[in-house]
Amino acid sequence: MALKGHKVVVIGDGAVGSAYAFAMVQQQLAEELVIIDVFKEKTEGDALDLEDATVFTAPKNIYSGDYSDAHDAELVIITAGAPQKPGETRLQLVDKNLKIMKSIIEPLMASGFNGIIVVAANPVDIMTYAAQNFRAYQRTVFLVQEHLLIPQGYE
Ligand SMILES: NC(=O)c1ccc[n+]([C@@H]2O[C@H](COP(=O)([O-])OP(=O)(O)OC[C@H]3O[C@@H](n4cnc5c(N)ncnc54)[C@H](O)[C@@H]3O)[C@@H](O)[C@H]2O)c1
């Protein structure tokens, strides 16, 4: 996926989201990277750290943002989710993560975003289906351990 000159938004700055952002910086993908999380201070710190690292890679505009910043993004990756508690199955996470997904999709689509959504939050197939159906938005794919699965009929 060629993302040079493009804008990417990472929603959820935990273990998965911050690793994704780091990998994007290292691989010199995209020129604008926005990080969004309910834990705002973490996104600010991570954005500054990542920006420091760009001294050794391609110049990049990296910042802690909000949903309005997504209006002209090509790609949004959703990694936000409730942490899985010991003994809790992925299916038991559904209720919690559906609420989180809804709280993300509504302002994301209200921003005017018209790019591709990649969902990593688990259970990833259900969360992707939910992300598509909260706003009838079909440009949604899901990510499973570094592989992009693009089911038939998805753009
Ligand atoms: N698809 C895959 O291959 C794959 C692999 C590993 C983990 N996951 C899933 O990815 C998700 C994230 O895992 P993690 O280890 O990064 O968890 P984590 O707890 O480290 O990070 C989750 C982040 O989401 C944020 N968050 C919670 N609610 C939010 C909201 N409403 N808006 C914005 N941000 C919000 C939290 O503040 C936290 O920073 C989980 O659902 C996990 O199961 C998927």
Topology, element by element:
Blueprint lengths: L6 E5 L3 H12 L5 E5 L3 H14 L7 E4 L10 E4 L15 H17 L5 E4 L4 H11 L5 E5 L2 E3 L6
Helix pairs in contact: 3-4
The protein binds nicotinamide-adenine-dinucleotide.
A few lines on this structure:
This protein has 155 residues and is of the alpha/beta class. It has 4 helices and 7 strands. The chain has a 7-stranded mixed β-sheet, sandwiched between helices.
Question: Can you walk me through this structure?
Answer:
The protein is an alpha/beta fold. The chain contains four helices and seven strands, in the order βαβαββαβαββ. The chain has helices at 15-26, 40-53, 94-110, 124-134, and strands at 7-11, 32-36, 61-64, 75-78, 116-119, 140-144, 147-149. The chain has a seven-stranded mixed beta sheet with strand order 3-2-1-4-5-6-7, with helices on both faces. β2, α2 and β3 (61-64) form a beta-alpha-beta unit. α3 (94-110) runs parallel beside α4 (124-134). The radius of gyration is 15 Å and the shape is globular. It starts with 6 loop residues before the first strand and ends in a 6-residue tail after the last strand. The relative contact order is 0.15. The protein binds nicotinamide-adenine-dinucleotide. Nicotinamide-adenine-dinucleotide binds at residues 11-17, 37-39, 79-81, 83-84, 100, 103-104, 120-122, 124, 143-145.
Kindly estimate the percentage of residues that lie in beta strands according to DSSP: 15-25%
Strand order of the largest sheet: 3-2-1-4-5-6-7
SSE string, helices as H and strands as E: EHEHEEHEHEE
**Helix tally?**
4
Could you report the average pLDDT, rounded to the nearest whole number? 86
State the secondary-structure class. alpha/beta
How much helicity do the residues have? 25-40%
Rg is 15 Å
The small-molecule ligands in this entry are: nicotinamide-adenine-dinucleotide
Unreliable residue stretches: 148-155
How many beta-strand segments? 7
| Amino- and carboxy-terminal Cα gap | 14 Å
Largest sheet: 7 strands, mixed
Shape descriptor reads globular
